[in-house]
Structure formats: C-alpha cells, structure tokens
Amino acid sequence: MKKIKNETALLKKAIEIGEKYAKNRGYKGFSGTDSAKQKIESLYRLLVHDKLVQPLAKDQENQLNMKHKLALWISKQLPEGHELLK
C-alpha cells in the first residue's frame, strides 16, 4: 500500500463528507461519543455496500487499510486542483 500525499487531511475530509453522505442515505448520524475508529469502519462499510469503493480482502480488513480506502475515495471525489491534492 502506497502512502498518499496528505493522507491524514484527506481522511479527515472523507469522514466529514462521508457523514453527510450517510445522513442523506437515512443514517441517523454519529453521536459525539462515537470514536474515529467507529466512524471509519461504518463509513467504509456503507461505501462498500453502495459499491462506491471496492471492498478489501477479508484478511486485509483493518483500520489502516480502511483509512487508506477512504482517503483514496475522497481524493477521487475532490475537484482537480483542490488544495488537498497538491
């Protein structure tokens, strides 16, 4: 797995956009007590279910790889020339 430039910032943006996407899909939303780990796994599973990201192999499903998948997903959603893609 190759590290993406600005991966941490992209992940933060992916969580932000992913939460809005989940709400639009009817998810009640995350509470203030939900950890980042819970949000990442929930968003990853929602995006896989909606076929917006390709699922990881069962033996590769871990927090690090889910974070990477979310960062890749959002990097493809952002417009060309966005500050996080530079």
Automatic annotation (TrEMBL):
InterPro entries: DUF5062, DUF5062_sf. It holds the Pfam family DUF5062. This is DUF5062 family protein. It comes from Aliikangiella coralliicola.
